[in-house]
Amino acid sequence: MKVVSVEDAVAMIPNGATVMVGGFMGIGTPERVLDEMVRQRKSELSIISNDAAIPGKGVGKLFDASLVTALTTSHIGLNPNVQKQMMASKVSVDLVPQGTFVERIRAGGCGLGGVLTPTGVGTLVEEGKRHIDVDGKCFLLETALRSDFALIHAFLVDYLGNLAYALTARNFNPVMAMAADTVIVTAENIVPVGVITPDHVVTPAPLVDFLVANG
Q1: Is 135 left (phi over 0), alpha (psi -120 to 50) or beta?
Q2: Are 137 and 168 in contact (CB under 8 A)?
């Protein structure tokens, strides 16, 4: 793990990158990194995030600045900006059932090709997807999700890069940290090695590439 400034962290992300962003309605989202992405005008982004948050919060800031061209998500209902951009064909939106969404990311992090799920069989969700019969029951093959970068927010990080999360802010962060080529982390507190006991480490240090310095 290398400690970098938020400016240098975002400078590594090219225009057109595929970026996973942790958080649930902005809870557990690395806001400082998103603010800097807006400042540096990172554009043509493909975002993978559980939801589109709301205007002015979380990934919603990226849509406020019209920096996103594609979104893979489970919910956009509270962000009218995303809805308008989708209707105007400025952003392509792939809506994925939430359980399927997280399982596709987990599969990507575990080196799997995808997952089989009955969710969506007989609905619009199944269009264009492979149907696989298992013991007489129909499943859809949902392919794995990976990204160029994952933007993660933790409660604690030690000097090696081990992460612990606080309550519901844990949400999608750990699984996304496994499914990206480069993992960039912000944290509420940076602590000495040993403060996070081994059984409280959720994301181990080898998965973390860069830590954004506090202050």
Answers
A1: left
A2: no
Pairing of strands 180-191, 147-158: parallel
Maximum alpha-carbon separation in the chain:
58
pLDDT digits 0-9 by tens, 4-44:
999 999 999 999 999 999 999 999 999 999 999 999 999 99
The token duo for 206 is: 């080898």
Instruction: Identify the three-state secondary structure at position 34.
Output: helix
B/e letters for 178-210, b = 16+ CB within 10 Å, e = fewer, are: bbbebbbbbbeebeeeeebeeeebbbeeebbbb
pTM: 0.95
What pLDDT digit, counting tens, does each position of 112-162 carry? 999 999 999 999 889 999 999 999 999 999 999 999 999 999 999 999 999
Positive or negative torsion for Cα 95, 46, 57, 86:
negative
Asked whether 85 and 91 are in contact (CB, 8 A), the reply is yes
Instruction: Name 102's Cβ contacts closer than 8 Å, sequence gap at least 6.
Output: 50, 172, 175
pLDDT-above-90 percentage for the chain: 98
CA distance 13 to 169: 24
